[in-house]
Amino acid sequence: MKKKMWALIMSTGLAIGLAACGGGGNDNDNAGGGNEGGGATATNDAEAIFKQNCSSCHGENLEGRNGPNLQKIGGTLSQDEIHDVIENGRPGMPAGIIKGDDADKVAAWLAEKK
Length: 114
Known about the structure:
Order of helices and strands: HHHHH
Shape: globular
Number of helices: 5
CATH class of the domain at 40-112: Mainly Alpha
Helix content: 40-55%
Strand content: under 5%
Mean pLDDT: 78
CATH architecture of the domain at 40-112: Orthogonal Bundle
Largest sheet: none
Structural class: mainly alpha
CATH topology of the domain at 40-112: Cytochrome Bc1 Complex, Chain D, domain 2
């Protein structure tokens, strides 16, 4: 009986944890709204993508919640290193929450935070 209760508690905790960190993929396949020219729109897109997928753990203002503070992450990690974390995850952060061009945009945006 104790094993079944323990398994139930652990699986519930895991499900809640994964849901809080973005849960699944990005249902918005065209987050850029058709404007792929870069500039301010790309920054706004990256911020919107971040808020939709990452802010539940990293905070609306990058201040950190369950996940670390990212306000100055660009001073610690390069754009490629940030992209690698987004793509492959880290302990406590699932891999692939953001994919493709969206991951590229968010990595570039976060790399500017110094």
